[in-house]
Write a structure and sequence with these properties.
- The structure is a single chain.
- It contains eight helices and 72 strands.
- The protein is mainly beta and 893 residues long.
């Protein structure tokens, strides 16, 4: 958040000292930028173990001259296959309608960071990606050069091996490393070197000198704040220049104003300040001259010869092959999200690339990214800011607004200093196509409103007069009112939209019970506890192979062993019984899936947030600062409700950094064998971790994650599944702590505060032990034995078409379970343990645990009893079956 927002924060947030929650830093080493001690070296990830391949998933025009290509990269690491999703914007420089330019901060100003989506909206870009590296502790300016719309906005820094991407005035792509040379000439003819334009403080290569010491730094109207490079290391003397005339000099001081539109401010110090004192006075004319110098050709270049330029990090690809890194990349290790840019061998195509790290997408190491770019067609390419900064937006065909197309590494879009935008100059053309958007698969009873989009011959969106659109749908599928369909009967057909001479079709399938082959919950709850809330997700697979979530409002919900309500797909448990498990049954059109979870109870462990626990603070490394203590007066807590409160400042030191709340040598004992842990945590959006150290029964130290991503503000309930840890109970909690791990450390906020309250553990109610049951029977005999006692059946087991049929209710009652009979559709439903079986008299298809199967002999009624196939029942319920062929007898256990 910015400082203006901080001034309006609640007392709680102020107490937590949320300092500037803007986009976090690039992955450039802070040691280089800030002059601190070198961070520990982190080896770059190993080379991929086999030749990777790229598969194109989709390709769609963005505008004339630009397409979005979404691909999957497949390779192997240590013999194991990996997949990574990637996005490539391909720009055709021979198309006169497409342009590339730099997007900068807010209102095209430095020091005011903004995410790429908002930059694109503000500048009317049709696509965009994050750009240059920057110092998160600095003022919000790029490290490298920036040329926007033919004008120089930021000069290159004096750092070795930093590359930039540019387009020349005649639209030729360039990837090169640049340095900067300039001078300030006083009216008396004396000159002094100009060190840079719109630069935040950094430490130069190779001498590690302060960028603003004994230097003249120039600030233009692109600099969006009054403060300019004042980190306390130098004493400024500033000069205000308008229309090349000195208007004000602040000797050993600053000019309390932003740089003007018709001029600039020179910030000087040391020897540079002496130059001003000795040679410059108010009213003098002053001349500034500057140019780039290519580190490759050693030739000077006027910034005006470039349409645009954006800085990056190391070169990655040269002549279509992975290049030697031009700069130390040890801080860029790991399998991360990546951003890069390159161009084709003939210079016609520019490739703007992001890769995702998260979920099923496994990110890339930098060597893998090199190979990927070369495989994607790049002849020359460089590395842009990646990791948590990686973000790409693009305008879908027919849409007016851009959308995020990549998967942000930390789940949200980071505020960054600049980005590369794709723009269109294409005129408005005639309608070239229509697109119908909406679900292709509908469930019986579902209502769906479809959206119609149009685009012209330049792939730019057109607005549609809804009144002029004619919609049609086969009456066998449902009812249509305008662009809203209500599905009524199973079947397939086409939804058609027409406007003038343009037409779009969308194939639609309506699904009922008979079209489903599988129905299941995808997020089973570990435990049902009173007051608990559980997000439900039920997915159906159809005979056509389609997979889709079933809308919660189309499902009928039944609960066994507990009571509760389901609203908008969220189950709230009101009360539970004494049995050890509860069943939640979701039914669509007669087709059911069952979720079985343990019945449990929450038990709060007050000792973890008690004054009497004598919490002590610990930290690592010694250079960091912070506090850990128990408090009782935090907003958002009830009267006298205690909370564990952490403050931290991780700016100093190296390696993994953490503030601990220690519970001493004995720790806090946790009774029994909890299945889960819950806590209310006040987050600071720092992206840091919260963990607990526990000692288990065997003396093993284990670390349990409350969360590995604090990506929220305010109080939030956190659930921790303890079954994922190999814990030997009982356990003892030794420490709870906030940690900023070494890998990706520069992606997280170094200063902040969090709080934890209401820590409780969930325990499973003891389930009554089911007695062992043994049933012996023989085909065509009504006399059977149950645990050695004789019983008589109304209907003896029989063999039909080679299948042994048994009277279901008697056997389920005997073996332990529940049978439900629905006369309306002649359905038999069996519930036992976590199994659910549905059968219909006379129908060969059965549903067993949500899956459709076909029986050798369909269920039937004999002498008023429902007879079901023994083999399917026994296999589904886990019965042990013995068969004596000589006596035609069966034993069930």
């Amino acid at each position: 958040m910015d400082w203006e927002r901080e001034q309006n924060m609640s007392a709680f947030a102020k107490r937590f000292r949320m300092a500037a929650k803007t986009a976090l830093l690039s992955t450039l080493a802070l040691a280089t930028l800030l002059g601190t001690a070198d961070l520990p070296a982190q080896a770059a990830s190993a080379q991929p173990t086999q030749q990777p391949k790229i598969t194109v998933k989709s390709e769609q025009p963005i505008t004339a001259g630009a397409i979005l290509r979404q691909v999957v990269w497949e390779s192997a690491r240590s013999g194991k296959a990996v997949r990574t999703n990637a996005n490539i914007i391909v720009v055709d420089l021979q198309n006169p309608y497409v342009q590339l330019d730099v997007m900068t901060g807010v209102n095209n100003q430095f020091t005011k960071r903004q995410n790429v989506e908002d930059m694109a909206v503000e500048t009317h870009a049709v696509a965009g990606v994050n750009g240059d590296y920057f110092n998160v502790q600095g003022e919000g300016a790029p490290i490298g050069p920036e040329v926007r719309s033919g004008a120089l906005w930021s000069s290159p820094s004096f750092l070795d091996g930093m590359y930039a991407f540019a387009l020349t005035a005649d639209r030729k792509p360039v990837i090169d490393s640049f340095t900067f040379a300039g001078s300030v000439k006083a009216a008396n003819g004396e000159t002094y070197p100009l060190a840079g334009i719109n630069k935040a403080v950094y430490w130069t290569d190779p001498n590690k000198t302060h960028s603003h010491a004994n230097a003249i730094q120039m600030y233009t109207s692109a600099w969006g704040q009054v403060d300019r490079g004042n980190d306390g290391a130098t004493t400024p003397t500033e000069v205000l220049v308008r229309n090349n005339v000195v208007e004000q000099i602040a000797d050993n001081g600053v000019i309390n104003a932003k740089p003007p539109q018709d001029g600039y401010i020179l910030r000087t110090s040391g020897k540079a300040a002496d130059f001003i004192r000795n040679n410059v006075k108010i009213g003098d004319k002053i001349t500034v001259d500057y140019h780039f110098i290519s580190n490759t050709t050693k030739k000077a270049a006027d910034p005006a010869q470039f349409q645009m330029m954006i800085g990056g990090h190391t070169i990655l690809v040269d002549q279509g092959k992975p290049a030697k890194f031009s700069r130390d990349v040890s801080s860029l290790g790991g399998y991360r999200s990546r951003t890069g840019i390159g161009y084709s061998r003939d210079g016609r195509y520019v490739y703007i690339v992001t890769v995702d790290a998260g979920g099923d997408s496994k990110g890339m190491s930098l060597p893998e990214f090199q190979q990927f770019l070369a495989l994607a067609g790049a002849w020359k390419a460089l590395n842009l800011d990646g990791g948590g900064s990686t973000q790409m937006v693009s305008r879908p065909l027919g849409d007016f607004a851009v959308q995020v197309v990549n998967q942000p590494e930390n789940g949200s879009l980071r505020k960054v200093v600049n980005g590369l935008g794709v723009y269109t100059k294409a005129p408005k053309g005639k309608i070239a196509g229509l697109i119908v958007e909406g679900n292709k698969l509908l469930f019986v009873g579902e209502r769906e409103t479809y959206n119609l989009k149009a685009y012209d011959q330049y792939f730019n969106p057109l607005r549609i007069d809804a009144q002029s659109v004619h919609w049609s749908l086969p009456a066998t599928l449902g009812q249509l009112s305008g662009n809203t369909m209500v599905a009524t009967k199973p079947g397939v057909g086409k939804l058609i939209a027409k406007q003038d001479n343009a037409q779009a079709e969308l194939p639609v399938e309506v699904v009922g019970k008979e079209q489903i082959t599988d129905l299941h919950f995808t997020n089973p709850a570990a435990i049902f506890a009173p007051g608990g809330k559980y997000k439900l997700n039920v997915v159906a697979t159809t005979k056509s192979g389609a997979i889709r979530n079933v809308p919660a409002d189309l499902l009928h919900w039944d609960m066994i062993g507990f009571t509760g309500t389901v609203n908008d797909g969220v189950l709230t448990v009101n009360s539970t019984g004494k049995d050890g498990s509860g069943h939640l049954i979701a039914t669509f059109d007669g087709y059911a899936a069952m979720l079985t979870s343990a019945i449990g109870v929450d038990k709060k462990l007050d000792a973890l947030t008690s004054i009497e626990s004598n919490v002590t603070k610990q930290k690592t490394p010694a250079e960091i600062s912070g506090d850990a203590r128990v408090v009782s007066d935090l907003p958002g807590t009830r009267d006298n409700e205690m909370a564990l409160y952490f403050e931290y400042n991780f700016k100093n030191g190296t390696g993994t950094k953490a503030i601990y709340a220690s519970y001493g040598d004995k720790g806090i004992a946790v009774a029994g064998k909890p299945l889960a842990m819950k806590a209310d945590i006040y987050g600071d959006n720092s992206l840091n971790w919260i963990r607990a150290e526990v000692i288990d029964k065997n003396g093993a130290l284990q670390r349990i994650d409350f969360t590995r991503l604090i990506d929220w503000y305010g109080w939030k309930e956190i659930d921790v599944d303890l079954s994922q840890y190999n814990l030997a109970y009982p356990i003892t909690i030794k420490r709870i702590y906030v940690v900023n791990p070494e890998e990706g450390q520069d992606e997280r906020e170094p200063i902040g505060a969090i709080a934890i309250k209401n820590i409780r553990f969930q325990y499973v109610s003891e389930a009554p032990q089911s007695p062992k049951v043994s049933v012996k029977m023989a085909v065509n005999r009504k006399s059977i034995t149950v645990n050695g006692q004789n019983r008589e059946l109304d209907q003896a087991p029989v063999i039909v078409n080679g299948s042994t049929m048994i009277p279901v209710r008697f056997f389920i009652d005997a073996m332990g379970g529940e049978v439900q009979w629905t006369p309306a559709d002649k359905q038999v439903k069996i519930i036992r343990d976590h199994h659910l079986i549905q059968m219909w008299i006379g129908q060969e298809d059965l549903i067993i645990d949500g899956k459709r199967v076909t029986a050798d002999a369909p269920p039937r009624v004999m002498n008023g009893r429902s007879m079901l196939p023994l083999r399917l029942i026994s296999e589904s319920l886990g019965w042990k079956v013995g068969w004596d062929n000589a006596t035609k007898s069966v034993t069930l256990e």
